[in-house]
Amino acid sequence: MSVRGKVIIVTGAASGIGRAIAEGFHTDGATVVGADVALLDGATDFTLRECDVSDAAAVADLIRSVAGEHGRLDVLFNNAGLGFRTAIPDHAPDQFEKLIRVNLLGPYYGMKAAIPLMQAQGGGHVVNTLSRAAETGGKGFGAYGASKAGLYALTRTAARECLGTGVLVNGLIPGPTRSGMNPEAPQDPADVYPTAKWLAAFTADDMTGRVFWNRQEYRIFDEANAAFSREIE
């Protein structure tokens, strides 16, 4: 489970889960570059760069510059995200679209830039932060759930497209974690790090196209579909 010496990018790293896992990687000897749209939360031990993940050119520049500076990119954690709880008819103008640009297009831009680079170097790992909101259909979570369901589909597709190249693409479900989006959640952001580290230590022979929660594979949609059908019948 060593990440020592790995070059890792973590988006959404100024606070919350992103900051906790970036700090964990740094402490465990990885070279970490965090990215965030606004650097508001004080000094960090790891490098933190300003990047709006909804800007395709900015994401591509970040990935190229990190790989160029350090000679490779081993892990991309697409963690940056927005969240709100609002019924679909009550969405403010562009509220849905803004969330999709960050939560879904941001990881897409990251994968689009990182995967060819990782394939050229002989391997790498993309980890996308997912959520059970993708499967539950919770009231008020239309935008957030749609973004995570879309990201799950992208994760599976990218994993299939990368078979045989040494590049893995997987998803991580943190579980209910305290953050700006969920300040009352029971879990501390640092509790996500063991699973993040475990995934970052994967090698080319490990699993791909899967979703993990607490270092266990989570079969998204399997149980939720049946539960949802019972609820709305």
UniProtKB/TrEMBL annotation:
Task: Reply yes or no: does the keyword Oxidoreductase apply.
Answer: yes
Pfam families in the cross-refs? adh_short (PF00106)
Instruction: Tell me the PROSITE patterns matching this sequence.
Output: ADH_SHORT (PS00061)
Q: Which InterPro entries match?
A: NAD(P)-bd_dom_sf, Sc_DH/Rdtase_CS, SDR_fam
Does the keyword Oxidoreductase feature in the UniProt annotation?
yes
Listed GO molecular functions?
Answer: oxidoreductase activity, acting on the CH-OH group of donors, NAD or NADP as acceptor
**Superkingdom per UniProt:** Bacteria
Name the family: Belongs to the short-chain dehydrogenases/reductases (SDR) family.
Name of the protein: Short-chain dehydrogenase
Per the UniProt entry, what species is this protein from, by scientific name?
A: Minwuia thermotolerans
